[in-house]
UniProtKB/TrEMBL annotation, chains A, B:
InterPro entries per the UniProt record, alphabetical: Flavin_OxRdtase_Frp, Nitroreductase, Nitroreductase-like
Classification of source organism: Bacteria, Pseudomonadati, Pseudomonadota, Gammaproteobacteria, Oceanospirillales
Stretches assigned to the Nitroreductase domain: 8-162
Species: Marinobacterium lacunae
Keyword Signal: no
TM regions (residue ranges): none
Protein family according to the UniProt entry: Belongs to the flavin oxidoreductase frp family.
UniProt enzyme class: oxidoreductase
A Pfam family per the record: Nitroreductase
Keywords: Flavoprotein, FMN, NADP, Oxidoreductase
Protein name per Swiss-Prot or TrEMBL: Oxygen-insensitive NADPH nitroreductase
EC number: 1.-.-.-
GO MF annotation terms: oxidoreductase activity
Amino acid sequence: MNAVIELLKQHRSIRKFRPDAIEQETLNTLIEAGQCAATSSFIQACTVIQVDNPTLRTELAECAGNQAYVASAPRFLVFCADMRRHQLACEMHGAEMQSGYTEQFLTASLDCALFAQNVAVAAESMGLGLVYIGGLRNQIERVSDLLQLPELVYPVFGLCLGFPDQDPETKPRLPLNVVLKQDRYDDTQDHDAIKAYDEQVLEYYRTRTGGTKEMTWSGQISEMLVKEARPHMLPYLQSRGFLKQ
Amino acid sequence: MNAVIELLKQHRSIRKFRPDAIEQETLNTLIEAGQCAATSSFIQACTVIQVDNPTLRTELAECAGNQAYVASAPRFLVFCADMRRHQLACEMHGAEMQSGYTEQFLTASLDCALFAQNVAVAAESMGLGLVYIGGLRNQIERVSDLLQLPELVYPVFGLCLGFPDQDPETKPRLPLNVVLKQDRYDDTQDHDAIKAYDEQVLEYYRTRTGGTKEMTWSGQISEMLVKEARPHMLPYLQSRGFLKQ
């Protein structure tokens, strides 16, 4: 296993940061590394808002369900799926843009994830730690207003960055034979494999919480999925010009 | 700039591969590196179908608009957003899963992209080259049938992998001030910055094609966006249990 793969395998979310600053030049390097990720049909649909303003940071932390590190992390980035730029390109050529397709929503969102994961890997290669903040979508309309996002731009997730002030264990992942299948989708072994994995996750939480958290993977997932999942997302996205067809 | 960031910055799509095999053990290492990426609320929604069967590969190449390297690349992977596994977890706990939310479609799709980008970075760190295959979505229903995907699983994109037998230049990206914004979305400089970038892209294609391809970024985007974008995606996804609300 080479050093890059070692690095990838050491990933865990960091939510506690040392106060040490991340220079703007360093941040620019991370963003440039993000831009080098593959982009669907060269659309380059990811725009990053770097949020430095402390008032904004406090409000975004609230939006994300009071995750204090959104306000306190040395850096906080919001990754936005951006088709406003495509509209501009169309205007430059007097072309009438066809928008609102599900496919476009998908490619723009995927572009953000590919971009962000490159930023994450680059950051970790410098010794930085990070946590993705999907919680911004709790109050996505308020986030959009705070960042003055125009139509055809939506915030996919945030990213806290800083030098780690904690050293949590990596979290065990599903067995390889559950996530990697040969030639076709065959899930006959999944039930038993997930049962075994559940034990591993139970042990992970036990060790990590000194026995106060008893949770399996399937238990956690099933508890989450009996509830509705951010039902405001579809009307919000449609109001911003996405997912209309 | 450290070696990891150098690696990320050297990315370009590879579509021509040496015949050298990629061992299964190596492939497993790549998938394990993929699994280590962040996952939204620990959903681990990415399943990879490794396609070795030559007949299947030929059919998938057709689905992707006759991209021959889908059939001929030493390895071909299909990344699927998978909520079937979550359904199984719910069944294991007698829980009634709430599905069809846009938010769930988004998080499952993003999980695949984060996972795949880790696979891509790990692969490139071993000297492998790759190209993402979004074209599978041209005939997404046929792809789903070929891979026997059940409800709540859909193919997000493919990935060709192999040792490069070509050495194309990296493609210039949008200027940093277009993709990185401070505290709010301000696009007042974008028009001029894109104009300047267009010249750079024009030059890139001129050099690369010996003058036969004359194309700017905004020109390319505007040509693409006057057309409809895979309008079958929404009905397809809904028929598979996604994007119903």
